[in-house]
Amino acid sequence: VKSEGPKLVPFFKATCVYFVLWLPTSSPSWFSALIKCLPIFCLWVFLLAHGINFLVSHRSASRILAGLIFSAVGDAFLIWQEQGYFIHGLLMFAITHILYSSAFGMKPLDLKAGLLMGLVSGSCYAFLYSYLSGPFTYLVAVYIALIGFMGWRAVAGMQLCNDLWTWTKLSACVGAMLFMVSDLTIALNKFCFPVPYSRFIIMATYYAAQMLIALSAVETRDEEDFRKRS
Protein backbone atom coordinates (compact mmCIF):
# COMPACT_ATOMS: atom_id res chain seq x y z
CA VAL A 1 0.00 0.00 0.00
CA LYS A 2 2.84 2.38 0.85
CA SER A 3 4.49 1.83 -2.52
CA GLU A 4 1.28 2.10 -4.57
CA GLY A 5 -0.46 4.86 -2.61
CA PRO A 6 1.57 7.82 -3.95
CA LYS A 7 0.86 6.73 -7.53
CA LEU A 8 -2.88 7.09 -6.79
CA VAL A 9 -2.67 10.70 -5.58
CA PRO A 10 -3.58 12.14 -9.03
CA PHE A 11 -6.63 9.85 -9.11
CA PHE A 12 -7.84 11.09 -5.72
CA LYS A 13 -7.31 14.71 -6.74
CA ALA A 14 -9.18 14.22 -10.03
CA THR A 15 -12.04 12.53 -8.18
CA CYS A 16 -12.25 15.47 -5.78
CA VAL A 17 -12.34 17.86 -8.75
CA TYR A 18 -15.30 15.96 -10.20
CA PHE A 19 -17.30 16.09 -6.97
CA VAL A 20 -16.37 19.70 -6.21
CA LEU A 21 -17.34 21.00 -9.67
CA TRP A 22 -20.41 18.72 -9.84
CA LEU A 23 -21.21 19.88 -13.36
CA PRO A 24 -24.92 19.66 -14.27
CA THR A 25 -25.88 16.63 -16.35
CA SER A 26 -28.56 18.67 -18.13
CA SER A 27 -25.94 20.53 -20.20
CA PRO A 28 -23.44 17.95 -21.53
CA SER A 29 -20.19 19.27 -22.98
CA TRP A 30 -16.70 18.10 -23.82
CA PHE A 31 -15.49 19.85 -20.66
CA SER A 32 -17.90 17.87 -18.46
CA ALA A 33 -16.83 14.70 -20.30
CA LEU A 34 -13.19 15.51 -19.56
CA ILE A 35 -13.88 16.14 -15.86
CA LYS A 36 -15.84 12.90 -15.60
CA CYS A 37 -13.16 10.84 -17.38
CA LEU A 38 -10.18 12.49 -15.66
CA PRO A 39 -10.06 10.04 -12.69
CA ILE A 40 -10.01 7.12 -15.15
CA PHE A 41 -7.22 8.80 -17.13
CA CYS A 42 -5.29 8.97 -13.85
CA LEU A 43 -5.74 5.22 -13.40
CA TRP A 44 -4.21 4.77 -16.86
CA VAL A 45 -1.22 6.73 -15.58
CA PHE A 46 -1.18 4.61 -12.40
CA LEU A 47 -0.76 1.42 -14.44
CA LEU A 48 1.62 3.00 -16.94
CA ALA A 49 3.79 4.13 -14.02
CA HIS A 50 4.69 0.46 -13.49
CA GLY A 51 6.40 0.49 -16.88
CA ILE A 52 5.49 -0.44 -20.42
CA ASN A 53 7.49 -3.67 -20.12
CA PHE A 54 5.36 -4.68 -17.14
CA LEU A 55 2.14 -4.16 -19.11
CA VAL A 56 3.46 -5.93 -22.20
CA SER A 57 4.70 -8.96 -20.27
CA HIS A 58 1.69 -9.25 -17.91
CA ARG A 59 -1.49 -9.86 -19.84
CA SER A 60 -3.82 -9.39 -16.88
CA ALA A 61 -2.49 -5.88 -16.21
CA SER A 62 -2.70 -4.93 -19.90
CA ARG A 63 -6.30 -6.17 -20.05
CA ILE A 64 -7.23 -4.09 -17.04
CA LEU A 65 -5.65 -1.07 -18.73
CA ALA A 66 -7.65 -1.83 -21.89
CA GLY A 67 -10.78 -2.09 -19.73
CA LEU A 68 -10.07 1.34 -18.28
CA ILE A 69 -9.69 2.76 -21.79
CA PHE A 70 -13.08 1.40 -22.85
CA SER A 71 -14.55 2.67 -19.56
CA ALA A 72 -13.41 6.20 -20.34
CA VAL A 73 -15.02 6.00 -23.79
CA GLY A 74 -18.20 4.68 -22.16
CA ASP A 75 -18.16 7.54 -19.66
CA ALA A 76 -17.95 10.02 -22.51
CA PHE A 77 -20.91 8.41 -24.30
CA LEU A 78 -23.00 8.49 -21.12
CA ILE A 79 -22.48 12.24 -20.86
CA TRP A 80 -24.73 12.43 -23.93
CA GLN A 81 -27.03 9.55 -23.01
CA GLU A 82 -30.14 11.75 -23.33
CA GLN A 83 -29.08 12.46 -26.91
CA GLY A 84 -29.25 8.75 -27.75
CA TYR A 85 -25.80 7.51 -26.76
CA PHE A 86 -26.79 5.35 -23.77
CA ILE A 87 -26.54 2.11 -25.79
CA HIS A 88 -23.08 3.14 -27.02
CA GLY A 89 -21.96 3.58 -23.42
CA LEU A 90 -23.55 0.24 -22.50
CA LEU A 91 -21.53 -1.47 -25.23
CA MET A 92 -18.26 0.12 -24.08
CA PHE A 93 -18.81 -1.06 -20.51
CA ALA A 94 -19.83 -4.53 -21.72
CA ILE A 95 -16.42 -4.78 -23.41
CA THR A 96 -14.84 -3.52 -20.18
CA HIS A 97 -16.41 -6.36 -18.19
CA ILE A 98 -15.22 -8.92 -20.75
CA LEU A 99 -11.67 -7.57 -20.43
CA TYR A 100 -11.81 -7.56 -16.63
CA SER A 101 -13.16 -11.13 -16.59
CA SER A 102 -10.29 -12.18 -18.83
CA ALA A 103 -7.83 -10.41 -16.54
CA PHE A 104 -9.17 -12.20 -13.45
CA GLY A 105 -8.90 -15.56 -15.23
CA MET A 106 -10.78 -18.84 -14.92
CA LYS A 107 -8.73 -20.41 -12.13
CA PRO A 108 -9.83 -21.36 -9.58
CA LEU A 109 -13.26 -22.14 -11.04
CA ASP A 110 -15.29 -22.01 -7.76
CA LEU A 111 -18.71 -23.10 -9.01
CA LYS A 112 -20.36 -22.16 -5.70
CA ALA A 113 -19.35 -18.53 -6.23
CA GLY A 114 -20.59 -18.79 -9.81
CA LEU A 115 -23.96 -20.11 -8.66
CA LEU A 116 -24.27 -17.32 -6.10
CA MET A 117 -23.45 -14.62 -8.65
CA GLY A 118 -25.85 -16.25 -11.10
CA LEU A 119 -28.66 -16.07 -8.54
CA VAL A 120 -27.88 -12.44 -7.74
CA SER A 121 -27.70 -11.48 -11.43
CA GLY A 122 -30.86 -13.43 -12.26
CA SER A 123 -32.75 -11.80 -9.39
CA CYS A 124 -31.68 -8.33 -10.53
CA TYR A 125 -32.83 -8.99 -14.09
CA ALA A 126 -36.11 -10.53 -12.92
CA PHE A 127 -36.82 -7.33 -10.98
CA LEU A 128 -35.89 -5.07 -13.91
CA TYR A 129 -37.66 -7.14 -16.58
CA SER A 130 -41.14 -5.65 -16.17
CA TYR A 131 -39.70 -2.13 -16.58
CA LEU A 132 -37.79 -2.90 -19.78
CA SER A 133 -39.06 -2.64 -23.33
CA GLY A 134 -37.75 -2.89 -26.87
CA PRO A 135 -34.06 -3.70 -27.36
CA PHE A 136 -33.28 -2.98 -23.71
CA THR A 137 -35.07 -6.21 -22.77
CA TYR A 138 -32.23 -8.12 -24.40
CA LEU A 139 -29.36 -5.66 -24.04
CA VAL A 140 -29.79 -5.37 -20.28
CA ALA A 141 -29.97 -9.17 -19.97
CA VAL A 142 -26.66 -9.58 -21.80
CA TYR A 143 -25.05 -6.77 -19.82
CA ILE A 144 -26.15 -8.21 -16.48
CA ALA A 145 -24.81 -11.61 -17.53
CA LEU A 146 -21.44 -10.07 -18.40
CA ILE A 147 -21.06 -8.06 -15.21
CA GLY A 148 -22.27 -11.04 -13.17
CA PHE A 149 -19.63 -13.20 -14.84
CA MET A 150 -16.98 -10.58 -14.08
CA GLY A 151 -18.13 -10.52 -10.44
CA TRP A 152 -17.89 -14.32 -10.28
CA ARG A 153 -14.29 -14.34 -11.52
CA ALA A 154 -13.32 -11.63 -9.03
CA VAL A 155 -14.95 -13.45 -6.11
CA ALA A 156 -13.54 -16.83 -7.16
CA GLY A 157 -10.00 -15.48 -7.18
CA MET A 158 -10.12 -14.45 -3.52
CA GLN A 159 -10.05 -18.04 -2.10
CA LEU A 160 -10.85 -17.10 1.47
CA CYS A 161 -11.45 -20.70 2.49
CA ASN A 162 -7.95 -21.74 1.44
CA ASP A 163 -6.15 -18.80 3.08
CA LEU A 164 -4.67 -17.95 -0.32
CA TRP A 165 -6.19 -14.49 -0.57
CA THR A 166 -4.15 -11.30 -0.81
CA TRP A 167 -5.10 -7.65 -0.40
CA THR A 168 -5.02 -7.19 -4.17
CA LYS A 169 -7.39 -10.13 -4.71
CA LEU A 170 -9.64 -8.61 -2.07
CA SER A 171 -9.51 -5.25 -3.88
CA ALA A 172 -10.56 -6.94 -7.15
CA CYS A 173 -13.48 -8.62 -5.38
CA VAL A 174 -14.68 -5.47 -3.61
CA GLY A 175 -14.16 -3.47 -6.80
CA ALA A 176 -16.32 -5.86 -8.81
CA MET A 177 -19.08 -5.71 -6.18
CA LEU A 178 -19.01 -1.90 -6.16
CA PHE A 179 -19.17 -1.88 -9.96
CA MET A 180 -22.31 -4.01 -9.76
CA VAL A 181 -23.85 -1.63 -7.19
CA SER A 182 -23.06 1.35 -9.44
CA ASP A 183 -24.59 -0.25 -12.53
CA LEU A 184 -27.63 -1.52 -10.65
CA THR A 185 -28.25 2.02 -9.39
CA ILE A 186 -28.03 3.30 -12.97
CA ALA A 187 -30.57 0.69 -14.10
CA LEU A 188 -32.99 1.38 -11.27
CA ASN A 189 -32.78 5.13 -11.78
CA LYS A 190 -33.13 4.95 -15.58
CA PHE A 191 -35.73 2.22 -16.00
CA CYS A 192 -37.63 1.86 -12.72
CA PHE A 193 -37.88 4.84 -10.37
CA PRO A 194 -35.85 7.86 -9.23
CA VAL A 195 -33.16 6.79 -6.75
CA PRO A 196 -32.37 9.44 -4.12
CA TYR A 197 -28.82 10.78 -4.52
CA SER A 198 -28.43 8.43 -7.49
CA ARG A 199 -25.66 10.37 -9.20
CA PHE A 200 -23.54 10.48 -6.05
CA ILE A 201 -24.07 6.76 -5.37
CA ILE A 202 -23.32 5.84 -8.98
CA MET A 203 -20.12 7.87 -9.30
CA ALA A 204 -18.73 7.21 -5.81
CA THR A 205 -19.09 3.44 -6.17
CA TYR A 206 -17.89 3.57 -9.78
CA TYR A 207 -14.67 5.47 -9.07
CA ALA A 208 -13.93 3.29 -6.04
CA ALA A 209 -14.56 0.16 -8.12
CA GLN A 210 -12.23 1.24 -10.90
CA MET A 211 -9.48 2.18 -8.46
CA LEU A 212 -9.68 -1.18 -6.67
CA ILE A 213 -9.69 -3.14 -9.92
CA ALA A 214 -6.69 -1.14 -11.15
CA LEU A 215 -4.92 -1.94 -7.87
CA SER A 216 -5.52 -5.65 -8.44
CA ALA A 217 -3.16 -5.49 -11.42
CA VAL A 218 -0.26 -5.08 -8.99
CA GLU A 219 -0.84 -8.65 -7.84
CA THR A 220 -0.07 -9.95 -11.31
CA ARG A 221 3.42 -8.56 -11.03
CA ASP A 222 3.97 -9.88 -7.50
CA GLU A 223 2.65 -13.39 -8.22
CA GLU A 224 4.50 -13.92 -11.50
CA ASP A 225 7.75 -12.50 -10.17
CA PHE A 226 7.42 -14.87 -7.21
CA ARG A 227 6.94 -17.83 -9.57
CA LYS A 228 10.04 -16.85 -11.55
CA ARG A 229 12.13 -16.67 -8.38
CA SER A 230 10.79 -20.06 -7.29
UniProtKB/TrEMBL annotation:
InterPro entries: TMEM86B-like
Membrane association type: Multi-pass membrane protein
GO-annotated molecular function: alkenylglycerophosphocholine hydrolase activity
Swiss-Prot/TrEMBL keywords: Membrane, Transmembrane, Transmembrane helix
GO CC annotation, single: membrane
Main EC class the enzyme belongs to: hydrolase
Superkingdom, taxonomy of origin: Eukaryota
Transmembrane segments annotated in the record for this chain: 30-49, 61-80, 86-106, 113-132, 138-155, 167-188, 200-218
Subcellular location: Membrane
Keyword Membrane among UniProt keywords: yes
PANTHER family: GH04784P (PTHR31885), LYSOPLASMALOGENASE-LIKE PROTEIN TMEM86A (PTHR31885:SF9)
Protein name: lysoplasmalogenase
